[in-house]
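Most newcomers find our protein records easier to grasp once they have seen one. Nothing more is needed to start thinking about how sequence determines fold. Here is such a record, shown just as it appears in the course material:
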Amino acid sequence: MSSSWRLAAAVSATEQFTKMLAKEIGDRGITVNTVAPGPVDTSFYHPSETEASTEFYKLLSIANRLGKVSDIVPVLAFLCTEQARWVTGQTIRVNGGLAD
């Protein structure tokens, strides 16, 4: 099995688990969501990518850049607030419009 198939299977399983868990524990006032960032410019990202793949990911983004941690954190912070109480069972893509 190629790595892209494994990744697709893991993403699909995560999204389904998010929906199922949200339904299972939602009556307790608990929300469950998945945040799916695109490529983020971190020390974790760079060792496994080449200069060519990084440029490719930049081209796929509307802003022509990799994401930054500061792009992702506000979404996570929002999901922890009372204002997000109606957001549950969702996969939220925070990826600069990445065409994946």
The chain has a mean pLDDT of 93. The chain has one domain: 3-94. The domain at 3-94 is CATH 3.40.50.720 (Rossmann fold).
